[in-house]
Design brief:
The protein is an alpha/beta fold. It has two domains: about 130 residues, no CATH class; about 280 residues, no CATH class. Helix 2 runs antiparallel to helix 3. The longest helix has about 45 residues. It is elongated, with a radius of gyration of 33 Å.
Length: about 425
């Protein structure tokens, strides 16, 4: 059957390929523009978020001075995203000081307590610095807005007990009938779910308790603040004393009344029996067994620092339930009465015990038995454990501060400190700044 010419024209598909190619090219350009511009916006969003985080942290560090909060926040935003290239990313009006509620995770501008800063960093039409697009212009999109917000929380924390281990269970442990009243704060770096353990009839009371991880126990006053960013070692830059040779080549065993002078004790010092011992002022370098005090002894010393070098071997730790215990570099036990005070001036002001940072981590320090201690000074054992056990007690007008790998109070050990009349400031103050939203 012959097809009329008009119908043949309608059925003819020749020449249709060009419009189809054109449509596909246009669609491809659209996808390309979307991919390239979206990738660029995603990249820029990350930079704006970084600027917002930095600005919020810088502002929070200046709480409660509102003018400095705004000044520092804007300055940090401009350092991350210079005005010449990005316009004004963070106007002053987009910096707010207020209150952060951790329970509801909400920020209240001008709320109390004033503990946080919120910023809104933007490249937008509102700030006259919207992001210019590339290929999307073909589709009629010339620019886009990019913004990011951040809330930084400031926490002021002081601590005279600092447990540095980043992951230990029970980095701070209070058990048995131990009673610990610090008169200052406790800081625990461990991110363990049981970074702080309290059990038995034990109790810990402090001005503040903070940990990177979590805690277990009911008698912790106040309730620990969790999720704290770990702090650095407060004494990381404290230089060890310089020394050479030995003033005493072998172990000095003291069993009679005597006075000891400062110097290098290459075998360490062991005080026992019924000795009455006085340490003259100065630095005591203790290698060998370190410092061992036991028996019915009385030990005194003002303006003294005891340093344990990396090669201090410590005394054998013996066995507990068939397991060999780590060596002990500082040991105070028995019915001893120990009164030691750190220097009140000079480079080692306030430092009573100082164990070198290069000491093997298997070392420990034990204060136990019926020891009664009137101590004034800081225990610095960054790589080893400090353990108060038995009936040991620190009492009187003395104060101690402990920076150690872990700290433990067990048995009926007792530490009570009233720092209201202490002239020398024990512990350290930390400002914890971190992004919460």
């Amino acid at each position: 059957m012959r097809v009329p010419p008009a119908l043949r024209f309608l059925r003819d598909e020749r020449g249709m390929i060009m419009p189809m190619v054109g449509a596909m090219v246009l669609l491809g350009v659209g996808f390309a523009s979307l991919a390239i511009d979206m990738s660029y916006l995603y990249y820029l969003r990350g930079k704006v978020q970084t600027a917002a985080d930095a600005a919020a942290l810088a502002g929070a560090g200046q709480i409660p001075d509102e003018s400095n909060v705004v000044k520092n926040a804007v300055s940090l935003a401009e350092k991350n995203l210079p005005v010449a290239e990005n316009g004004t990313v963070l106007p002053k009006d987009d910096v707010a000081m207020g209150s952060w509620d951790a329970g509801t995770r909400t920020f209240t501008p001008a709320g109390n307590p004033t503990n946080a800063v919120r910023v809104l960093a933007r490249r937008s039409n509102a700030n006259d610095n919207a992001v210019e697009l590339f290929f999307a212009r073909i589709l009629g999109f010339d620019e886009a807005d990019v913004e990011a917000s951040a809330v930084a929380l400031r926490r002021d924390i002081s601590g005279c007990i600092v447990a540095l281990d980043p992951s230990a269970d029970g980095a701070l442990t209070i058990s048995g009938n131990a009673e610990v009243n610090l008169g200052c704060g406790a800081l625990v770096n461990s991110d363990s779910p049981t970074a702080i353990i309290e059990n038995g009839s034990a109790c810990l009371t402090a001005t503040s308790i903070a940990t990177s991880g979590d805690y277990s126990g009911d008698c912790l006053n106040p309730t620990p603040d969790t999720g704290m960013p770990p702090i650095t070692d407060p004494l990381a830059k404290l230089d060890p004393p310089e020394y050479s040779g030995c003033d005493f080549d072998s172990l000095v065993e003291v069993t009679v009344n005597t006075t000891l002078s400062s110097g290098v004790y290459c075998g360490g010092i062991d005080i026992n029996s019924n000795a009455v011992v006085k340490f003259e002022p100065g630095m005591y370098i203790l290698k060998g067994v370190g410092l061992q005090i036991a028996g019915n002894t009385k030990v005194t010393g003002d303006e003294v620092t005891f340093y344990f070098p990396p090669d201090t071997t410590g005394a054998p730790g013996g066995k507990v339930k068939g397991k060999t215990q780590p060596p002990i570099s500082l040991f105070i036990a028995g019915t001893t009465n120990v009164e030691l005070k750190a220097p009140t001036s000079g480079y080692y002001e306030g430092i009573l015990f100082y164990q070198d940072r290069n000491t093997p981590s298997n070392m420990r320090n034990l204060l136990t038995g019926g020891a009664t201690m009137n101590l004034e000074g800081l225990f610095y054992f960054p790589k080893s454990d400090v353990r108060f056990a038995g009936n040991s007690s620190v009492e009187g007008s003395a104060w101690i501060s402990i920076i150690a790998r872990t700290v433990e109070f067990v048995g009926t050990s007792n530490l009570y400190q009233d720092l209201s009349e202490v002239a020398y400031s024990p512990g350290a103050a930390f400002v914890s700044l971190h992004i919460v939203d």
